[in-house]
Write a structure and sequence with these properties.
Rossmann fold, 4-stranded antiparallel beta sheet, 17 helices
């Protein structure tokens, strides 16, 4: 049952309470549960009304999965005001409702067919980038919410800050987002979603009440447009810093994604001499631990590209060509999705060695807390589980990493980074780029002046194994 996640009863009751807070329903009101699944929200609404001796509104439950329908209809057959409709909520329908409540399906773009993607992109402004179906449910619900009506959804918190959800934030910020309530990580048991209840009214925007996971509350003004809401939700001023980490960097990016590390990443100790001209020291996130003090890569990455990111022709690859043409190696490379648009031995993403092979700062993409390491010689090629930060001015390396290791930077990143499982932080380039930098650090890095690329002496330290002293 694609995207179906049952909502715990206690959470259902909490959401129904928010739905009717200060505005109890009447029998003439219309209520919708889109994607109603097994009917937990419908049951919760009836339970709330009966316990308070309030008239039950006219309830419509929409469910696309036919496997739920027999049990749903049997559950509510004695409720004349409840209608179960077998339909796709994301189909064209202009019926409006005074109340909408639900738990939209969480379905990533990778689980949708090409026809579904095309249809959704043509219909929804939120169907951009690597969208999730719950974003589209939000948009469709806004279309069907009557003027003055109230919506209560439970979704992953990611819509507050991920770039893909920018169009949704733009739509929501035009309405009155009454409350954002961040729930416990274990609300859905072992399914880690960092759930968030959003309460919205179809009227002009005003102040928003925030209820954080630590129990603290705040009243904030959400930014208009597609900007991340996380800084405001976490209590940070929304104005842009005078200087950010992105201003100081030549490159701030995720490491190299080959699409086939089993082919291109080899143990450095027993590397075939014929492959050494194309081998570069490489490191993965799992090798960066709290105990790591010395960056000594145990593996090498075989890179069939020149310094400017141009894929070298096979006839110029020497021993690497013979290795890539082995039947088992070639078969593995041909099975990758990227070969639909690239030569069969190309990487998933193009490595820009001229930028990568410089003195730089490294950090894991996911960690319990942000930690930073320094590649002073500029010789390491980070893999896709490592982010790398290349200062425009190599002499500012220590000043920048010193600030990144400070409590101030740690606190800002904790407030602004996406959460992964078990409370770990997910560092991303667009978040790191926004990190405010104190003016004394910016001054050392000459942030306001264009800085020339590192000279040939710096790049000399980043040559492959066989050319390195």
């Amino acid at each position: 049952m694609k995207g179906f996640v049952p909502t715990p009863r206690a959470t259902v009751d909490e959401m129904v309470e928010l739905l009717f807070r200060g505005r109890q329903p009447g029998e003439d009101n219309a209520l919708l549960d889109p994607g109603c699944g097994t009917g937990e929200f419908i049951d919760g609404v009836i339970r709330w009304c009966e316990s308070r001796r309030v008239a039950v509104p006219r309830i419509t439950g929409i469910e696309a999965d036919p496997r739920h329908l027999p049990a749903l209809r049997a559950r509510f057959e004695r409720q004349p005001g409840v209608r179960i409709k077998h339909a796709d909520f994301l189909a064209d329908d202009r019926t409006t409702y005074d109340y909408i409540i639900g738990n939209p399906p969480y379905v990533p773009i990778t689980e949708l067919s090409e026809a579904e993607k095309a249809r959704y992109r043509a219909r929804y402004t939120t169907a951009r980038g690597r969208f999730d179906l719950y974003l589209l449910f939000f948009e469709e619900a806004l279309r069907r919410l009557a003027p003055g009506g109230r919506l209560v959804f439970i979704t992953p918190e990611k819509y507050l800050y991920v770039e893909t959800a920018g169009p949704l934030r733009d739509l929501l910020a035009r309405r009155q987002v009454e409350e954002i309530r961040l729930l416990r990580e274990d609300t859905f048991g072992e399914l880690v979603t960092y759930p968030t209840i959003t309460v919205l009214c179809q009227q002009p925007p005003g102040a928003t009440r925030i209820v954080r996971r630590d129990g603290t509350t705040a009243t904030v003004k959400l930014p208009r447009g597609r900007h991340s809401w996380l800084p405001v939700v976490e209590g940070e001023a929304s104005q842009r810093a005078a200087v950010t980490l992105g201003d100081l960097c030549l490159r701030l990016s995720c490491g190299v994604a080959t699409g086939a590390d089993g082919v291109f990443v080899r143990a450095a100790g027993d590397l075939d001499p014929a492959l050494r001209p194309f081998a570069y020291p490489t490191i993965a996130g799992r090798e960066l631990t709290p105990a790591t003090t010395d960056l000594t890569p145990r593996c090498a990455m075989l890179i069939p590209y020149d310094a400017d990111g141009r894929l070298l022709p096979l006839e110029r690859l020497g021993g690497l060509r013979h290795y890539l043409l082995r039947d088992e190696v070639r078969h593995r490379l041909l099975s990758r999705t990227c070969v639909k648009r690239k030569p069969w031995y190309a990487f998933h993403e193009t490595p820009l060695l001229r930028d990568i092979l410089r003195p730089k700062i490294l950090c894991k993409d996911i960690g319990e807390t942000p930690r930073f390491w320094v590649d002073r010689r500029g010789e390491i090629v980070p893999r896709h589980s490592v982010y790398y930060i290349v200062p425009r001015d190599p002499t500012a390396l220590d000043a920048i990493v010193g600030y990144l290791r400070s409590q101030a930077a740690h606190d800002w990143l904790t407030r602004n980074c996406q959460r992964a499982s078990k409370g770990y932080l997910r560092l991303q380039s667009r978040v790191l780029q926004r990190l405010p930098v104190p003016l004394d650090v910016a001054h050392v890095a000459a942030a306001w002046q264009p800085v020339a690329r590192a000279d040939a002496a710096v790049l000399q330290a980043a040559l492959p194994f066989e050319h390195r002293a």
